[in-house]
C-alpha cells in the first residue's frame, strides 16, 4: 500500500482557502440575487466550509487524523475551553470597539450584521445555534485549524502558520478587523499546542454562543460603553485569557516521546486510524460505558446532558449578571428602548392616536433611568406589561392605559431626585 502524505502542502492549503472563499462568496451572491432568507446563508455557509475541508482530505489523499487533528482532548483542556471562550469574547469585543474608532464601519453594515444574529422565534434559535454555533465552530475549525493550519505548520513552522491561517480566517469573515485576527491566532495556537481539534471547536462554539445570547437576551451589540468595557469585566477577562493561554501552551509531551511516536508511524506506514488510543487523562470512556448496564447507561447520559445544559445556563447567567452589574444604566436604557420599539410596532389601529402617550411614557421611564431613580424591578414590571400586551400582536387602548398606570406608579415610587451638585 502506498503511503499517503500526512498533511497538505502550502499550495494545497492556499488552494483550499481560495476554494472555500469562492464558495462562500458565491453563496452570498446567490442569496442576494434570489432573495432567499438569510437563514439559508447561515446554514449553507458552514455546510460549504465543511464540504471543502472534507473534500480536500479526499482530493489530496491526506491522513484525516493528522490533517484534521482528529485526536482526543484532555478533560482539563475541554473544561478550560468555556472560561477561555468567554474571556476571548470580551477581549475580541474590546478590540472591535477600539478598531471601529480608528476605522469606522458604516451603520448599514453594522445593522445588517446585527440582524443576522437576531432570533425571531424558536425556529430562528434552532437555525442560529445550528449554523452560527455548531456549524461555524465545526466547519471553520476543520478548515482553518485543520487542513490549512496543519499544512502550513508542517512546512513553514508554527509561528508563521498561526499568523497566515489567522489572516486567512480574517479575510474569510469579510471584515478586516483585529478581533477576527486575534481569535484566529488564539484558536490556531490552541490547536497546535493541544494537538486536538476538539478544543478549538469547543472554544469557538462557546464564543459564538455568548455573542448570540448577549445580542438576543441582553440586547447588547457590544459590552463597551461607549468604547471601553467596564474594568469589572475587562480585567478579569484578560487575566483568564492569559492563564488559559499559559495552560494550553504547556506541552507535556517530551521530544523523546515525539520521536518515538514518529518512529512508530514510520514503522507502520499503512496504519491510518481516525481516532488513536488516547493517552491517560483524556476523554476516553468507551470501555467503561460498555461494562455498565444499558438502562443505567442511558440514565447516566441523560443526567450528563442535563448537567452540561444546566452548567452552561449558570455560566451564561453569571456572565450576563456580571455585565449588568458593571454598568446597569446602559442595559436598562437598552431594555427601555426595546420595549418602546415593540410597543409602537404592535400598536393597534384603534389606539394609533395614542402613540404620543406611549412615547411619553417610555421617555419618562428613560428620564428616571438617567437620573438613577429606577432599578431592575421597575424595568421588569414594565417588561411584563409590554410582553403580556403584545403577546397577541395587538397593543390596544386597554394595554396603553395599563402601561401608563405602571409607569406612573414607578415614577411615584421612585426616590426623590438628588440635589444638584455644585
Characteristic terms for this protein:
422 residues, single chain, 0% strand, mainly alpha, elongated, 2 domains
How would you describe the overall organization of this protein?
The chain is mainly α and 422 residues long. It has two domains: 10-250, no CATH class; 327-413. The chain is built from 17 helices and no strands. Helix 6 packs antiparallel against helix 9, helix 7 (158-172) packs across helix 8 and helix 16 (376-389) packs antiparallel against helix 17 (397-413). The chain starts with 9 loop residues before the first helix and ends in a 9-residue tail after the last helix. Mean pLDDT is 82; it is low at 253-257 and 265-279.
The number of domains is 2
Beginning-to-end CA distance, first to last residue: 87 Å
- What value does the average pLDDT take? 82
Helix fraction? over 70%
Looking at the structure, what is the overall shape?
elongated
Secondary structure topology:
Layout (H helix, E strand, L loop, with lengths): L9 H25 L3 H22 L4 H4 L7 H28 L4 H10 L5 H35 L1 H15 L5 H17 L3 H20 L13 H19 L5 H13 L18 H5 L3 H33 L1 H18 L9 H16 L5 H14 L7 H17 L9
Describe the structure concisely for a colleague.
With 422 residues, this protein is an all-alpha fold. It is 74% helix and 0% strand.
